[in-house]
Amino acid sequence: MSLLLGACRRFKYGYMHTRYASTEVAAAATAAAQLSNASGMVGFWQTLSNSTPVAYVQDALIQIHDYSGLPWWSAIVLSTFLFRSVVTLPLTIYQHRITARIEGIALEMPAIVEELKREAAMAKQKFKWSEKQTAVVYRRSIKKQWQKLIIRDNCHPMKTIIVLWGQIPLWICQSVALRNLVYMLPDPTSLKAQIAATELTIGGFGWIPNLTVVDGSYILPVALGLINLAIIEVQTMTRTRPQTRLQNIANNVFRGLSVLMVPIACTVPSALCVYWVASSSFGLAQNLLLLSPEVRRAVGIPKTQTELEQPYDQLWLKIQKRARILEEAPADKSTNK
What we know:
By secondary structure, the chain is mainly alpha-helical. It has helices at 2-5, 23-36, 42-49, 52-68, 72-86, 88-106, 109-127, 131-153, 162-182, 191-201, 219-237, 245-265, 270-289, 293-298, 311-336. The protein is elongated, with a radius of gyration of 25 Å.
């Protein structure tokens, strides 16, 4: 009876087993939408452009470029990988650990639920409770026990969104810092700003020699959209449980945002496109790497029942299956005609 009678009156209950696979797309859409509407947010942009975090990132970009001796496009890619390795990669690993712990304690709940059911039946007879009273106490008991398990394993579900607290600020700060470098902000009269802007005009590659202009070939914007879509599809295809209706809706929303990023990327300087593509590429590689059971054990992520034993083989099989479906669809339509 101890579990039932120890139920508290105030409680919180929640279980989140979503990997937040589409953090890349959400962060990209947030920053890009803000950049595209800059004309209507002059005051906001001035404040953000002059902010201390942006100044630090901007100075770091210049330092990386100067000390590495790399052209600007390479320096942008290098800085992106460095920043994400230091900030978002540890947070993503921590998120996976929390998610694995939550899945682990969820396996303990069935036994607790059965015990509470027995205690509820006994208490109903002993105290002459009504069905409604018994149900209320029973639900509170379950939620109390779930809360105890969360506290025991230090895995509150809200911790699973910790990546967003690092990903989005980093994305915004680096995007604004690159925008500052392109437009010689916040002080166009500064010699340092003028030198950086001049170097950006010759620091490109291949079909984009000038990083201060848009990518007229649209190669980078389209690549950005495809990479973001790949992130979503990889996470979708590596789920071992059936997707809920809410997850399906979220995936479709993120797919829409990935497509929306393409025209937005077509309107910004190529320096920003290089950064966005590099950041999304890092995110895709990071997600693929963390599918490996060996890598997960190496970084301290507990083994779970939903973990794939051979993730890359299964992913490849699902890709092939989708490809066959796409190939067969036109043939089916022509046959029906």
